Amino acid sequence: MSVKAKTSEKSETLNFSADVSRLLNIVANALYTNHDVFLRELISNAADACDRLRYDSIQNPDLIKDNPNFRIHIYKDTATRTLTVVDNGVGMSHDELVENLGTIAKSGTAALMEKMKDAKDPLKLIGQFGVGFYASYMVADKVTVTSRKAGSDEVWIWESDGRTGFTVREAAAEESKILDGARGTAVTLHIKDEGSEFLIDEKTKHTIQTYSDHIDVKIFQNKPEETAAGQGKPVNSASAIWMRPKSEVTPEQYTEFYKHITHGFDEPLLTSHWHAEGKIEFNALLFIPTLRPWDLYDPGRKNAVRLYVRRVFISDSIDGLVYPWLRFVRGVIDSQDLPLNISRESLQFNPVIGKIRASVTKRILGDLEKLSRDDPPGFITFWGQFGAALKEGLYDAAEHRPDLFKVCRFFSTHENGEKHVSLDDYVSRMKPDQKDIYYISGESLDMLRNAPQIEGFKSRGLEVLFFTDTIDDFWLQQVHDYQGKKFKSVTKGDIELSAPEEKDKKKDSVPAEHERLIKELKIHLGDEINDIRISRRLTDSPVCLVAPEGGVDMHMERVLKIHQKYQGETRPVLEINPGHSLIKKMAAMAEGGTTGEDMKDAAFLLLDQARIIQGQPLKNPAAFTRRMTAFMERGLS
After folding, report:
1. Fewer CB atoms inside 10 A, N or C side of the chain?
2. Domain check: are 565 and 459 in the same one?
3. How confident is the model over 11-42, as pLDDT tens digits?
4. What is the pLDDT of residues 427-477, one digit of tens each?
5. What's the CA gap between 128 and 480, in Å, rounded?
6. Closest Cα to residue 139, out of 200, 184, 205?
7. How many domains does the chain have?
8. Are 207 and 155 members of one domain?
């Protein structure tokens, strides 16, 4: 937050917080090579102010009765070396000036600075955090903001050099004349030598037409009073880009509109523009970003799709307009079927919203499936950024699961786990007598690729899917099969992997030479384990842990403990590999009567080894160290 330095009845000087000061320094330096963007950001803010007043005026028409035509003015004064951007939008009160321009709390200052600390490209991060106003300091050594909230009699001035803090004071009558009528905001930039080109009309005009031609507010290159007298024509086309036919919109225009609504610097990975007709009618222009926002997995993050009703901006945070698992989608939806006088609070309960959501979801998933076919590298880029969020829909949107499964991708043991595979790919490679889709879940691909539990599957040519996202453990509780093939964890229960010629053998038979070993291990390990058995999974490793058939899968249990404060404790099953040389030696020890402390130490070392491989913490690291040291001493002597 900002810190007040001194106050009077009508004026106060405040200091920027340390984070804001550092951010302003980064903006001024990191963005210098692309400083045209400051004007785009100021125009976008002005257009947003007009959009918000459009909505407020639905309930209170008196707010715009003096000046019903929304517009933006941009003009220079070479004598004072200033460039001014004026809008007749909603305006700001004293407190809003302090909050919106004096702090960056809403943008997550601490997280922003942490990400910027080692960023190779601060430019992209600045855009992702939506702090475009501060780009003004690339070309200005002082910025003055004059604003009057619609419906208010007070005019306030915010002023700062971007270094030492800012002053907020009440405007004098003469200073208020800079506004366009009785409301709005004027941003006056005192241009530095480095920004002198923006005192040339042609440069400003070119920048406006390049970045802001799509803005649905007319932009003039003169003073408000000159426009009121009938002088000048709009510089931009001032038509809603989402209402135009696709054939009339260029890729460059789509990109600039995307940057306008996101305040970002990346380009959209996917653009979806269509007009829906039928039971409901709406226009939609939606984008999937190339880069995921920093707060994608913040529980408080809302969707950022803007809702318009017949070109009137309603809100950019309507709950239920898009699913939470599509919260990365940006863009505009313009409905023809919603009443203009509906409140934001009641919108989420309007049945039209649900129908729009269903239609938008179907369209986006269809476009993603098409992207996966037409541009596999581009789709994998998308999946790496947003796949984990999209899979949340498998948990809570049963009606869309068939379409979601078409676009979901996973790593697997196929081709050494280097490529993404779809569930259709997996099913097409299943063995003729294979009934289940095998998977293993864990924290990292490297750990799963080397998990001992998959050794038997790999040796028999059975593909195993790798699930590494937290959401995987949850949607698997809701989805039990795909195309009639059940999902089966390779780390839970007993699995029959015997060759056909071995299937007639007694399932639970234990080689005689290992019966004594298993008995001794059970005696020493006691309540640490649920059971000990010969493994059908292992080929190379001596031991592994699996969950009992009726228990909670081991990785799922760890996830529940972290995210749900789960208190349960499932005792695992210890499986041993009878063909491994270590197990053979231990079986010989048991047969030879070695059942004392040496066997106990060996038993616990086996169990701890299995825990380490599984990624579980050791229950008693000191005891493990003592036992390991003793065994190493004997081995080296």
Report:
1. C
2. no
3. 788 776 555 666 666 666 654 456 787 898 89
4. 999 999 899 999 999 988 999 999 999 999 999 999 999 999 999 999 998
5. 38
6. 200
7. 4
8. yes
